[in-house]
Please model this.
Amino acid sequence: MSLNYSTRRPLSRADDKPHAYSSNSSDLGPARIQSEDRAVRLRLLCVGGEDHHLRIPFLVALRQRGIEVIAVGTGDGSPFARAGIAYHSFRFDRFVNPLADLTAIKVLRGLIAELRPDLVQCFDTKPNLLVPLAARGIGDVAVIRTINGLGWIYSARSALALALRPVYLALHRLAARGTAMTVFQNRDDQAFFRRHAMIGKGSNRLIPGSGIDVARFEQAVATGPSPNDLRRSLGLENYDIVITVTRLTRQKGIPTLLEAASLIHAERPTVRFLLVGPRESEGPLAVTQAEIDRHAPYVVAVGARSDVPSLLRVADVFAFPTEYREGVPRALLEAALAELPIVTTSMPGCNDVVRDGWSGFLVPPQSPRLLATKILDLLDDRAAARAMGTNAAELVRREFNLDLTVTRYAAAYDELLGDSLRSKRHAATNRVGCGSPGKESFS
Model:
């Protein structure tokens, strides 16, 4: 029987105050520990990069299952504060910088030693290498690497990227020694790690994506500006709109998209391409503003936006021409929820969301002419486009919804720590005289 429960370890610091998380007392039965301060709760330290705030719904859902969640990231901490999640900041260089990496390992090691989590879960390319190295030798801390794509090194074809691939393999094999479990977000990455002996002795499992909060997405659409108002504000009232939501980098396929846009404009000048996402923060990987400007007025770049769910509803097609080794792209999940037909590349992660000819089209990377053809096909056959959009939404609601994803992760935590925490909880129960703990789990 799978039950929700709240357990907590004793706190040693006066300023480390527990959150008032709710539990269902009928689920806990006679084993419930009445004094939260004296109980034992799974403490999870979740580490990511500058986009870590996108995982807040996932972290909140874990907290609702009785797990104490602490976040560590490189971005703004205010979204975590609004969600009531403790947040600690650190820094790492997304590019090659061994000195910065050593500094980040030192900072992470200090945080892990201070916060004493039961489990550290890391996301993103650099944290997946840094965290296992930082946690080595620190008590009974289990580490889960979450492989959400293989990153720039296996996406770029530059001499530097090719030279760094053997280093990446060696570092992941080293990190695997300090990893209790590796979670993969798509099948291709799991096969890659197995093929190159990068998993180590720890267990591994497939959990697609980080989950998408369907209710929250729908609420954002319902409370956001209307499609007509958005079209008017963007100056796109009388155009077909192809939208792309991504970082404006070469690895994300923006040069390919711009070339496809040029081909489509020559044939159908009533189409506009709306690019949503950051450019200036992407360093040497970014496309230049001049490249974008050459395609004005039929390409409009609006930068990063907080109203993406509403923007998706004004579009007719979603294009995602990535050349990047993605995990499961959140942009595709949100586009599918908006019931947009999708044209994307046959890259790992993308082909987990889009089924060619059923929920959209898959094209090879760096194929602007084929990308343009498939976009035009969807614009020309609106009935087929609507059917694909409906299929995409049904797939995401069924296979990638947040509740299912959290259940899968809770089962992974229970596999690693269930017996250990049940023993701690049993000891705490005996101290307060509340009987037997039974066989509860996080899921």
